[in-house]
Amino acid sequence: MTRYLKLAMLAVLALVTFAPAASARQPVVVLRGYYGPVFYRPWPYWNAYGPGWGWPYGYAPAPTTGGVKFDSKTMKDAAVYVDGGYAGTVGKLKTFPLSPGTHDIELRDSEGHSSYQERIDVIAGKTIELHPDYK
């Protein structure tokens, strides 16, 4: 009986010693990220509560560019110039990404004469529609 008593006492002692450490929550580190606070657990406990625990509400990065779309029926062969640099033709570009900010858009015909000019403000995640036929 003493052998079982010693074994039981050893099991209780192990339970009392290791149970609080095993059930304790790991520290959460909060850093200031680019899109707001970032919560994560230091390695090796980063996935202690399952995959994706570090991002409890999901993480979707914000778009970094805006879009420019040409809606033109007659000017498919016109050359597109953005801030003075050649970008392509209207027919090939259709919709293309552009960094946020103010840009000068110019369309030139095959002889190099400017047929359409506009200054636009590009916003990240938004697409601007241009209608060069109607101006």
Counting helices, strands and paired strands, the structural category is: alpha+beta
Return the average pLDDT rounded to an integer. 77
Distance between the termini: 101 Å
Low-confidence stretches: none
Q: How many structural domains can be distinguished in the coordinates?
A: 2
What's the total number of strands? 9
Main sheet: strand order = 5-4-7-8
CATH-assigned fold name of the largest domain: Immunoglobulin-like
Gyration radius from CA atoms, angstroms: 31 Å
Question: What CATH first level of the largest domain would be assigned?
Answer: Mainly Beta
CATH H-level name of the largest domain... which superfamily? Carboxypeptidase-like, regulatory domain
> Per DSSP, what share of the residues sits in E-state strands of 2 or more residues?
35-45%
Order of helices and strands: HEEEEEHEEEE
> Overall 3D geometry?
rod-shaped
Query: So, CATH architecture of the largest domain?
Result: Sandwich
Figure out the total of helices: 2
- Give the helix proportion (percent range): 10-25%
Sheet with most strands: 4 strands, antiparallel
